[in-house]
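User: I'm putting together a teaching handout on how multi-component assemblies are represented. Below are the sequence lines for each component of a complex, exactly as they appear in our records. Could you produce the 3D structure of the whole assembly as C-alpha cells, so the students can see both representations side by side? Please keep the chain order the same as the input.
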Amino acid sequence: MLDIAFIRENPELVKDVARRRKTAVDVDALLALDNDLRATRRHADDLRAEQNRLSKAIRDAGADKEARDGFIAQGRGVAAELKDLEPRERELEASLRELLLLTPNIPDASVPEGESEDDNVEVKRVGEPRQFDFEPLDHVTLLTNLGMLDLERGAKVGGSRSYILKGEAVFLELALMQFALHHVARKGFLPLDVPAMAREFCFIGNSQFPRGREQTYALPEDDVFLVGTAEVSITGMHSGEILREQDLPIKYVGYSPCYRREAGTYGKDTKGIMRVHQFYKVEQYIICRADHEESARWHEELLRVAEEIVVALELPYRVLNLCVADLGDAKVKGYDIECWVPSEGRYRETHSDSYFHDYQARRADIRYRGEDGVVRYVHTLNNTALASTRAIIALVENHQQADGRIRIPTALRPWLGGQEYLGKAWR
RNA sequence: GGAAGGGUGGCCGAGUGGUUUAAGGCGCCGCUCUCGAAAAGCGGUGCGCCUGAAAGGGCGCCGCGGGUUCGAAUCCCGCCCCUUCCGCCA
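Assistant: Of course. Below is the structure of the complete assembly, with chains in the same order as your input.
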C-alpha cells in the first residue's frame, strides 16, 4: 500500500506506474474519495468536539436542572447529526482502503520496461547445460521408472495437479528442505515452522488479497485460508507491532507446505510436478529499517544465498531482472532464478527474490521505533531458498545417469546418509 | 465439543456511566545534587488522523467490530486471543 499523502502529491506518477504495470486502478476516483473522506471526517470531528464540550457542561451543571436539560437537548441534536454522518464516514474509509489496496507499488529505476514476461532481462547465466551422451529423459519418466512417483493415483486421490512421491523421493524431498534450511540458518536466519492456515489479514498484508484471491484455497468454516508461501504467515507474525530498531534486521527462514489453486492455468505445465497444488518450500524473509539502500543491499544478498544453494545442487541457472509488467503489484523490484530443465531445453523458474519497501508493511501495519524515537514502517523482503517440486525436477533431470539412476550432488549427500545415487539402475 | 475466568500504556496494576484530559508503581529519558555513581527530588515519557508557517488546536484509540446513551474503559450484542477444568485426539 502506498502512503495516501504520496498519491495526493504524485497522482500522475501513480497513474503512469499503474499503466506500465498493466494494473487497472482509478487514481482520480481514489483522490475524490480521499477528499470526500477528509471533509466528512472534519465535519464529524467538529461534531464530536461539540459533543465533548456538551458532555462536560452536563456534568458540571450538577443540580441546575434547567441548564442541564438544555445541554442534554443540544447533545441529542449533535448525537443525531453524528448518527447520520458516521456510517458515511465508515463507508468512505472502507472504499478508500479498497482502492488503496489495489494501487500498485512504485518500481525501482533499475526495473526494465516491458509488456510481458518476454521482456524480462537476463542478468547472468551460471553453469553450462550438461551435454548428455545419451537421450535424457524427463522427470516424470525418470521418477516413475524408479518407482518414486505415482501421478495417476495422485490424481485419483487429489485431482489434477496432485502427485504421490514414493520411496527415496520422499527422503530426497526432505533432504532438499533440510539442506536449504540449514544453509540459510547458518547465515543467521532464524528457522520458523509457521502455520499453513492463516487469517485473511495475513493475505491482505502480504498483497495476496484482494487481487489474486482466487489463487488461494479458502476454508470458510474456519475463516482461514491455505498459504501459498510461508511469506504470508511471516508477514502476519508482526502485524500491528512496533518493533525496536535495535532488533532489526530480523532474518527468518520459514518452512511450510504451500497450497496454490493455479486457477486459470489449465493448459500450462500439465505434465508432471512442475505446477502442482501442494509442495513444500523453504523461504528467506527479512524485515529491515526503512532505508532504500539497505533494502537493495539485502535484496542482492538474498539472491546470493539462493544462488549458493543452486550452485551447491550443481544446477545450471540464470537470473532474470523482472520487467515492470511481470513484477506483480507489490514489488519494487524482483529477480527470478531459473534452473535449467533438460527435457524442456529451457530454464524454468525456481526462485523469486523480491523487495517491497514499506508496501507490505503499510498493509500489515508493521513498524519500528528508530533510535531517533520516530516510528516508521519497516521494509520487507523475501526470496525462495528452495521449493520442493521444482528442485526435484531440476535435480533428477540434470543429474540423471545413462542407467536411469540419479547422481546426488555432494552437498546434499550428508542429508541422505552419504548416498551417491538415488534409485536402482533400470535402463 | 462443553464449562468458568480473563484481555487496560514498554511492563505491573487501579478503575462497574460524567473531577479519567486513564490513578499509582516499575522501567526509560532529561535536569538538580555528586569527583563519579547510587539514593533522593523535580520534570518528561504512546499511536494515528485533521488543521496550522510554527507554536498550538481538534478528533479517535483501554483485544477487535457493532449497539444503547446527551455522555461508554465501564452497560448490551458478535468476534478474536489467553488461562483453567471436562471430553476427544496425533
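A couple of points students might notice: The longest helix of chain A spans residues 65-102. Residues 38, 41-42, 44-46, 48-49, 51-52, 54-60, 68, 71-79, 199, 223, 242, 244, 367, 375 of chain A lie near RNA strand B (CB under 10 Å from a C1').
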